[in-house]
Structures are given as C-alpha cells and as structure tokens.
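An example makes the point: we let one protein speak, the chain in one-letter code, the fold tokenised, and here it is:
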Amino acid sequence: MNKELNLNELFTNLVKFISRNSKLLIVFMVAGVTVVIVYQKFKRPYYETVAICMSGISEYERQDQIEDLSQRTAIDLINHLQINIENKDYASLANSLGLDLEVAYTLKHIEAEQLYQQDMSEKFYALNKFEIVLSTFDNANIKFFQEGLIYYFSNNPFVKQYYNSYLVSNAEIISDINTEKKLLDEIRILGARNSLDVSSVNIVNDKEGDIFNNQIILLSQLRESLKTKQILLKPLVFVQNFADVDHKEDEILIFGSLSLFLSFVFGLFVALIKEVKST
C-alpha cells in the first residue's frame, strides 16, 4: 500500500515538475528539432537504389556447396568495396570499378545481402540471387556504378581465372558430347543395317539418379544445359538493374524524434538544476 502511495506521489510530483518548467522544456525541444531540420537542409543529399543480381562463381569452382553459401563469394566481393569507402580510399575504389575518380567520390555506401524465400512450412531457404543496396550523392552516376560492378567482377584475378577455366572446360565437355552423340548415331545406323538391338544400352544421370533409354536425348539435354549455364552464369549478372531514383533520402523523422527526446531529457536536467539552485 505504501509502495503504491509512493509511486503515485512520485508521478504526481513529476507531472507538477514538468508543468512548472513546461516553457523551458518547450524551448529546448523546439531548439533541438530546429537544429536537426537545419542540418538536414544543408546536409549533402543522397539517393538510395536497389538491384537484384546473381553470380556463377560457385559454378566455376564446381563444388557442391551449402545452399546459403552459393552466392557468398560474390556478396563478400561487393561488401569489400565498402572498406574503401569507409577509409575514404576513393582512388582504389575508382581503380577497382574502372571509374573516374570524380564518379567514385559520389559513392556513399554499398552493401550486398543474400535473398531468401519462405516456403509453405514457413522455413526460409536461400535463393541463388542476392540484393545490392547502393547509396550515391549523384543519381546520374547510378548507371556508371552498375557498369563498374560488372567491370570489377570481370577483372578480379580470382574470378577471371576461374571463369576462363570454366569456359574452356565447358567447351571441351560440349565437344566430347557432340563426338559421343555422333558415335551413337553411327552405332544406331550400323545396328539398324545389321538388325542389331542397341536400345537396351542405358545411360544413368548421376546427378538426378534417373535412367534414360535414349542416350542421344540425354546427351542433347546435357549439352543444352551447359550452353544455357555458360550464357547465364557470368561473374555478375543483373537480374534487375538499379532503379533510377529522383527522391532524395533524409533522416528528418528518425533524427528529429531522437533530438526531441534528448532535448526533453536535457531540458529536465537543466530545470532540475535550476530549481535546486533556487531553493
């Protein structure tokens, strides 16, 4: 009972204290919000845009990876650029992206994140795509940054070596498939001439575990699959380009609310000191 009375008394005294010093508190709060608005008014504006990408780096390595790691190398390469921005090393940034130094200076922030999708059982699984969030002080340079990222991936020594090896390896496999397909055609023609049954020869697809009676169809499907991957799985592919944005980003609401709260707390502190000195 005494605790409830003490709490009520404390709350009542607090309300009276705020009421007595309301003018002072309002002055501090208005001043705090005004400072934020003026700061945002004169602060250099920036623009934020988003793109959706995918990379074939994990395919070049030809390693079975955990689903979440399939785009990890590409994501890490992009996030590594943020180190140059934070260190204000725009010369290295411009060199990495193949851009002019003046353009590199306008890049404020860049970050890549893995994309996930939720299934019917409400479990999230990683997609083979990721998202790039880019902030720049000049929206006219957005297209240059997109081209710069493609240049960055295409000229990275690690990626370049793996990609070239992947292309050579794919070409050899496709050539072998064409040779094998031609050989099978000749065997079937020869078998038809000599009334031989070669239809019982099967090919097993190790990846899927399926058995195909028609070897030529399987080889054709494998060849076309390799061709499709070779076209699509480049070091960096933009599934959705960076959007052209004209709206300037600002943090008036966030910083205004924070400034309002801090100004109120600081005003209470000043009012308390004022009353203590007057007693």
